[in-house]
């Protein structure tokens, strides 16, 4: 009986070590993917925008405001967002007023420190 208890305990320790080791690298790898966002617009109007979402420290924050020139791009520099999560993209054109939409930052096709492109019409 004592031998069976030792075998079960040893199996539990091995399983815990195996599964714990497998889970840790995935978590650390995902946490390392933080990106800056660049918004490109096809509009003939100036677009004003800001973001709300999880930053590189996993804090929920709002960014400052930026503007995109007509048919141009603007990088939201100085702010880093978590890949694999969504951000709230708040934007305004003079003809439509303020709107917002969730935008997913894919973790599959980006690397840590990259600039990730989002588009608005």
From TrEMBL:
Protein name (Swiss-Prot/TrEMBL): Secreted protein
Protein keywords: Signal
Signal peptide positions on this chain: 1-30
Superkingdom of this protein's organism: Bacteria
